[in-house]
């Protein structure tokens, strides 16, 4: 990550001015990979953030939407695809006080990085599905997929034949009653 944090937002004009509001937007290249597993936003991918800053008595309320595109692999076929991500977020950045807060105004700035990162990572699917992927899956050469037929009866292992006969005899005797 570079020395300049692209998530830092100057709020000097809103400090201790309840009722004031500003709308802003940020567009920048993601400074680090977000997410793991089968879906992630790679370093350098564009992130667009549209947000509103509202001054309230307790601090600065930030509400907005972040948009980006994740790289993903289908959980069923490992097929690569792009996954659009749009997430809403809202967080209160409290003024520093004796009571610690998870998010605080830092001097005359707020740092949106943990809020946006958490929102984007939580929006990434654990098992992504390729858009329009049907039950008909094209498998790589040399791999055969065997699908059970719901109507067909499984072949009987001869070691269990005597029990199967006992079951048939029991079913017949029940019908005769």
Keywords summarizing the entry:
single chain, 177 residues, 5-stranded antiparallel sheet, elongated, alpha+beta, 7 strands
Radius of gyration: 28 Å
What structural class do you assign from the helix and strand content? alpha+beta
Strand content: 25-35%
Distance between the termini: 80 Å
Indicate the percent of residues in helices: 10-25%
- Mean pLDDT value: 87
Shape: elongated
Oligomer: single chain
Count of DSSP E strands?
7
DSSP helix count? 2
Low-confidence residue ranges: none
Q: What letter string, H or E per element, gives the SSE order?
A: EEEEEEEHH
Largest sheet: 5 strands, antiparallel
Task: Provide an overview of this structure.
This protein has two helices and seven strands; from the N terminus they run βββββββαα. The model has no long low-confidence stretch (mean pLDDT 87). The termini are far apart. It has a domain at 8-123. The longest helix is centred in the last third of the chain and has 16 residues, at 161-176. It has helices at residues 113-123, 161-176; strands spanning 8-10, 21-29, 39-40, 46-56, 59-73, 80-94, 109-111. The radius of gyration is 28 Å and the shape is elongated. The strands form two sheets. Strands 2, 3, 4, 5 and 6 form a five-stranded antiparallel beta sheet that branches. It is α+β, with helices and mostly antiparallel strands and 177 residues long.
């Amino acid at each position: 990550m570079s020395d300049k944090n692209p998530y830092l937002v100057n709020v000097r004009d809103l400090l201790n001015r309840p009722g004031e509001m500003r709308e802003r937007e940020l567009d920048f290249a993601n400074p680090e990979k977000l997410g793991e597993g089968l879906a992630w936003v790679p370093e350098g991918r564009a992130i667009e953030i549209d947000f509103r800053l509202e001054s309230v008595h307790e601090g600065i309320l930030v509400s907005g939407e972040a948009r980006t595109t994740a790289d993903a692999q289908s959980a069923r076929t490992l097929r690569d695809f792009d996954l659009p991500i749009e997430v809403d977020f809202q967080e209160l950045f409290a003024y520093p006080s004796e009571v610690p807060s998870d998010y605080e105004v830092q001097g005359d700035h707020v740092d949106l990085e943990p809020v946006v990162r958490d929102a984007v990572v939580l929006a990434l699917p654990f098992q992504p599905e390729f858009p329009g992927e049907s039950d008909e899956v094209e498998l790589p050469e040399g791999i055969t997929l065997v699908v059970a037929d719901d109507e067909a009866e499984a072949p009987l292992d001869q070691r269990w034949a005597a029990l199967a006969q006992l079951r048939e005899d029991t079913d017949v005797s029940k019908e005769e009653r």
